[in-house]
Amino acid sequence: MSPGEDGLIGIPFPEHSNELLSHLNDQRRTGLLCDLTLTSRGARYPTHRSVMAAVSLYFRRLFGAEEGGGEGGGGFSVCQLDCVAPDALDALLEFAYTATLTIPSSGMRDVLRGAQLLGIQCVADACRDILGETVEAEAETAEEHRVQHTATENMVEESPERGSRRKTDKKKVKKIGSHHNNTSVLNPPLPASPFSHHSPASDSLRSLPSTQPPSPEPEVQHLNSGQNGDPRAITEPGRGATLNGGPLHWLQERPRIAHPPPAPRSNDKLSEDDDIESYGDETMLMGSISIPASGVDRGAVASVVGPGRKRKSQTPQQCPVCQKIIHGAGKLPRHMRTHTGEKPFQCSACGVRFTRNDKLKIHMRKHTGERPYPCPHCPARFLHSYDLKNHLSLHSGARPFECPLCHKAFAREDHLQRHRKGHSCLEVRTRRPRRGPELGEEGRGDGGGGGREQPNSLESLSLQAHSSAFLPHTVLDAGNGSGAGPPLMFAGDTERERSLTLQALAQLGSHRLAGYPGVFLRGLDLRGGREAEGEDPGGTHALAARDRWADEVEEDNGDEEAEEEE
DNA sequence: CTGGGGAAGGGGCCC
DNA sequence: TGGGCCCCTTCCCCA
Fold it and tell me: What range(s) does the BTB domain occupy (predicted)?
């Protein structure tokens, strides 16, 4: 009974999104559940606020502002959009509900203007791309040289999408439902509210587009400046979508729910191209929102997510979602599946799906009975090499991972970490001193007869080290005052002082205890525990674990200091 | 709380 | 250059 068999199984329904849209479109056509009516020069278009908010940054922000204003966002609204030509508005609505933009070429500019006004960036891009073949060509010939020499910095900000969009969006025109370069979507100003109904939000946004027809160019200019002004803002997943622009909102919600594999696949290979294609929309979206501020990161992202751009096999590559640096050629698609939840590799025997082919391969061993890792000391066989490794530690009795605090040893590092994260370690610490200064562990006999009078014995030093890790400097300095060198915790080394100090220890939370890396490490150096005795097959491991721990302590300390500075 | 099994995810190496 | 394979770490779950 493996978790994979009884755990959650993601069953994709590739047609769901299409069906959902189709039903919504039916509702729109029949007026069912429509809570928003768009008007343009007398024409009326019933629609749904949620759909418009999903597809249009303009409405998303507008409704977000309304709800933020306390109105709750409910009720029926009429939105006057005289600045958008009826045909263009109709086309945009059709797009919103069908993911397909159907427009005559003569109406392209109207649609472009409407898309820009409403913040439907993918449509705007597609229209601009089509129109731009002629328009931009003229502009580019005039400014080509100047751009090359003077706009380097700006191009760095924009080029990941812009530079490659030319050739790739030709393909994407058919996939217009996909998201896009949102270079001009980022941090746009909330459009003037065209709402005819009265609301607190609309009060502050009263100027109607119909009375102030927007000029797409100034709008874009403004938006671009917004992006350049603070590109980092959009890289922080925790920020509010309203603040950072809509695509982030989509990004955060779509991967888990709306990206089934293009077609049901079973045990098929997932090539890099498959990955890129299958992530197509998201990849573009991810790329569009995740332009890091640093030049290095920009380069990494540009190599990864430029829409349609053949990804340069640069390693490391930065994940546009979590910003994590992924090392290794071809590893980014693999990593991306951790965000999308896509599991293209399905077990033909039990149907369990996996994100990776190699995991499926290992899984198949359960069905074939193959256990390629036999224990040389017993009949046990294992599925994984690391299982055998763990198992061998049982035979050898080796417990190379020792808690530096309580000296409890573990065969596995993760068990040590679990031990550290729990409270058991602290409890052991608090109990130990009660056993008296000799503190000789079972069978140690190191204390002999003179443990009590020999504060420099191994155990005594160990206790000092143990305790010194968790004591505030004031307590430590009470011993020697200077704080230089290994701290002498207990100036008089009396039983009472130990007890009091360790009682204080017990009252410190673990996060507080981590704030004294210096003395902690010095304490470790004094440690004379099991590591110094007998076999230590994992001595290097223990040291490595200690180093890692030290790093963590330092990090914790940094956090602590940061908090205190606040 | 600990020991053990298993899965997920990342990185290295090789082809 | 990318995929396959392997190893490793970390986490979760169960007994």
Answer: 34-105
* Four-residue CA torsion sign, A381, A383, A386, A391: negative
CATH superfamily for domain A15-64+76-133:
Potassium Channel Kv1.1; Chain A (3.30.710.10)
Three-state SS at A185: coil
A333 CA vs B14 C1’ separation (Å): 20
Bridge partners of A277, per DSSP, are: none
pLDDT in tens, A362-404: 887 777 777 777 777 777 777 777 777 777 777 777 777 777 7
The helix or strand, by DSSP H or E, that contains position A59, with its residue range, turns out to be helix A57-68
Distances, alpha carbon A232 to alpha carbons A291, A317, A397, in Å: 7, 18, 51
- Report whether A427 contacts A415 (CB < 8 A): no
In this structure, what is the dihedral angle of CA atoms A157, A151, A182, A244, given to the nearest 10 degrees?
A: 50
Return the nearest residue to B3, CA–C1': A415
Bridging pattern class, strands A43-47 and A317-318 = unpaired
Measured CA to CA, the distance from residue A168 to residue A190 in angstroms comes to 30
Continuous H helices in A194-269: 200-204, 216-229, 241-244, 246-257
| Cα separation, A45 vs A86, whole angstroms | 9
Residue nearest to nucleotide C10 (CA to C1'): A414
One-letter identity of residue A430: T
- Running DSSP on this structure, what letter comes out for residue A384? S
* Residue A179 in tokens: 């998201």
CB distance under 7 Å to strand B: residues: A 2-4, 7, 316, 324-329, 331, 334-335, 337-338, 354-356, 358-359, 362-363, 366, 380, 382-384, 386-387, 390-391, 394, 408, 410-412, 414-415, 418-419, 422-424, 427
Q: Which residue has the tokens 């100090």?
A: A501
- Cα–Cα dist A22/A45, whole Å: 17
The residues, ordered by sequence, that sit 6+ positions from A334 with a Cβ below 8 Å of its Cβ are A355, A356
CB A177, CB A100: distance < 8 Å: yes
Cβ A234 vs Cβ A245: under 8 Å: yes
Cβ neighbours of residue A268 under 8 Å, at least 6 residues apart?
A344, A345
A14, A260 Cβ separation under 8 angstroms: yes
Global pTM? 0.33
pLDDT digits (tens, 9 = 90+) for A87-143: 888 888 888 887 777 777 778 888 888 888 788 877 787 777 667 644 444 344 334
